[in-house]
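Dear V.,

Thank you for sending over the compound details. I've combined the ligand you provided, zinc ion, with the protein sequence from our construct and run the structure prediction for the complex. I'm sharing the raw inputs here so there's no ambiguity about protonation or stereochemistry in the SMILES, which I know was a concern on your side last time.
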Amino acid sequence: MPELPEVETVVRDLNRLVLRAKVKRVWLDVPKFKAVENLVGRKILKVERRAKYIIFHLDKNKGFMLHLKMTGHLLLGKWSWPKKVGEKPVGISPFAATEPINRFIHFLLELDDKRMVGFSDMRKFGRVEFGELDEILNHAALKKMATDLIFMDFVDFKERVLKRKRNIYQTLLDQSVVAGLGNIYVNDTLYKAKVHPKRLANQLSSLEIKRLYECGREILNKAIKLRGTSVDDFRDLEGEKGNYGAVRLIYGRKGEKCKKCGTIIEKIKIGGRSVCYCKECQKI
Ligand SMILES: [Zn+2]
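Below is the predicted structure of the protein with zinc ion bound, written out as structure tokens.
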């Protein structure tokens, strides 16, 4: 599932590649509605990330917001434009647009220079919402979100963590506590900070919370620099994989040796999700 570093990678690329382009036409795999038609002719002024949402700011107060959810990703390329209901766009170029993982296009935006932005989402959990920009920016989904870990100050982080009576693993995943951390980066943060995933958040020491805060930020910033993780399905705007997966600390490394102490890494389930940890480095 794309997390903060993956979404940040896409947003930075969009700002680099599609700014000032105008929307020529829009295709959706569901019946069109007026808000979509309203995008035609509008200029892309800015693309913004809020937590894991991608917000396109267009001129004349228009915009749209995307959430990639499980398998969604945006691609820049060219597709055949569907001519009748039920027809699907077919990837033409670059190669990425024709890769199987990228063949699930649900939304296509053609720009005035003939390039296209396609939204591919195999499992169809992703969301796109269109409308007036000011309304999108005040969307209820955005209001529920806490600040990103990379922008949150330590005092705020500590206060939020200490209010929770559940385990620290689920606390860090909770986007209303702190935004941007998903499973991969929470696994690695807990390991690096030497905190057992099942420890209760409100029972952690100040020093442990400080370590979580610092390690979490370090890991997110490193992952942004490496353009995200593609252990699952993530691809960047040009169809390339992220590079954090190769250097990840513990996520998905069950059965391998801990790099710090050599103990075999174990996996447990918390709230239905798998968490890898080292029982020597992360004591309960
Ligand atoms: Zn260890």
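A first observation: The CA atoms of residues 196 and 282 lie 5 Å apart.

Warm regards,
I. M.
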